[in-house]
Design goal:
This protein is an all-alpha fold. Helices cover 71% and strands 0% of the residues. The protein has two domains: 41 residues; 58 residues. The N and C termini lie far apart (65 Å).
């Protein structure tokens, strides 16, 4: 029972958060201004243009492919930061191991990048 009593502050915080969210929503209903609604006010604003047609257009699959490739190569940087932070410490003990592992990692990603360039994956206009 002692361990469960440690969660009482977390439970209280959760209840306070829920009460605050519900309270602000209810207060906005009672205290908010009541405006006359009309069709012009309810139309979405599109930079001064009248909204004609469907709101969203379909994008090419190439667009999503480029987005996934961007995420892939962006995550590469996430793995480079810890390596750069501990590189100086690890250099004393395992200089060849840490450098070789990073060169291997970058080499594999470079091969993937060259493959994507050869397949024209970054060209979504064609």
């Amino acid at each position: 029972m002692d361990q469960l009593s440690q969660y009482i502050p977390v439970l209280i915080l959760g209840l306070v958060a829920i009460a605050f969210a519900a309270g602000t929503l209810i207060a906005s209903v009672f205290l908010g201004k009541r405006a006359k609604r009309n069709r012009i006010k309810d139309t979405p604003y599109e930079c001064g243009m009248l909204p004609i047609g469907e709101g969203s257009t379909r994008l090419s699959v190439k667009f999503y492919l480029v987005a996934m490739l961007f995420i892939l190569f962006d995550i590469e940087v996430v793995f480079l930061y810890p390596w750069a932070v501990i590189y100086k410490e690890m250099l004393r003990d395992n200089a060849n191991l840490i450098f070789g592992s990073m060169i291997t990692f970058l080499g594999i990603l470079f091969v993937g990048y060259i493959y994507a360039v050869k397949k024209r994956a970054f060209d979504w206009k064609t």
